[in-house]
Amino acid sequence: MEIKKEKKKLLTNIIFFLVVIIVLAIVVFSINDISQMIKLLRNANLWFILFAVLLMLIHVCLTNLSMYIIQNKLRNSVNFFTSITISNTEYLFNAITPFSSGGQPFQAYYYIKNGLSGDEAASILVANFTIYQFVLTLFSTTGLIIYYNRISQAIQEYIYLIIIGYFFNTVILVGLILVSFVKSFKKLLKNTFKLFGKIRFLAKPMEKLQERTFSFVENFQAGVKYLFSRKRVFLGSSFLRLFDLFVVNAIPILIFLALGTKVEFSDYLFIIMMSAFASTFMMWVPTPGASGGVEWAYTVLFVNVIATTSVVVTSMLVWRVITYYLGIILGFISYLIIERRSKIT
Rounded to whole angstroms, how far apart are CA atoms 237 and 243? Predict the structure, then answer.
């Protein structure tokens, strides 16, 4: 029954995802010169595009390897191929769910199905998410410090949206620290639930929420304890994540070069940082893969700073195909492999 519900929910998310993509495509092509975009694509340097695809594949390998390093130190770890396949489903389920929230529940389900306990699966996912959030916040903070003036001049009245995205990422990291290390935080949550539970119609919802929250906190603390008890795992996985951020966010550089835009070497780091901002600071947009928000952020960050509107919009479409839709395809292939292996066993 539970599996049927999950599959029904998955189908709903896919339909919602397709609707959002169709609407987005209509908007993009209706306000831009399609003939100019086609001309740019026809004249694009294929070798740079292929190199960009290669960087995307390296990105996928790095994120999957980071997850494998974390789970490999568990007593009941899964084999390399299974770990990589489970990790890779993230690109599918995160892409078709609002706030990119669908990957972890499915990964936990498949880890458990492959012999890990619920606590072990939670520890892997918590450790992986904590490392990613830590590295991402450090990366974003550095980028904002270096390029804040240039960003504010480029997007002017829209700077507050970047600040909101950065704020959300920072709050998440602070929340992780509170849950992980502040013992009184659990007591604070308990008192908060009790307070709201005094309101008659909120009594039962608060009771259920308290139970779920405490279970989450316990799993989270176990995951963080596991992570910090293995410093090599933490450092190794963090290094891979940091290197990966440079790799995946260098893709727009190759796309601009493919479209004939001359990019100064001094702008390489700026493009890498702006690409990271576009793909992460808009994650609060409640659409699958933050569609709409990510495309908008990419466009306003690069228009008239790196290239003209037609070049930037064309590069944005190629960028999303490589970093988003290719990821969905790879994630779907991994999903089919896992499902087939599950039926055989």
Answer: 10
Instruction: Show Cβ contacts of residue 229 under 8 Å, excluding neighbours closer than 6 positions.
Output: none
Q: Please give the chain's pLDDT, 345 residues, in tens.
A: 445 555 565 666 666 666 666 766 665 655 566 777 788 889 999 999 999 999 999 999 999 999 888 887 766 678 888 888 988 888 887 777 765 656 777 888 888 888 887 777 877 887 888 888 889 889 988 988 998 888 888 777 777 777 887 888 888 788 777 777 676 766 776 677 677 666 666 667 666 666 666 666 776 676 667 666 777 888 888 899 999 999 999 999 999 999 988 888 888 999 999 888 887 766 655 555 556 667 778 888 887 778 788 888 888 889 988 998 898 889 888 888 888 876 655
The DSSP code sequence of 217-276 is HHHHHHHHHHHHT-HHHHHHHHHHHHHHHHHHTTHHHHHHHHTT----GGGHHHHHHHHH
**Residue 180 lies inside a defined structural domain of this protein:** no
Beta strands in 265-306 (DSSP E): none
For residue 53, tell me if it sits in a domain. Answer: yes
Q: Note the pTM of the prediction, 2 decimals.
A: 0.82
Q: Which domain holds residue 305?
A: 2-23+42-164+234-344
Is 132 within a domain? yes
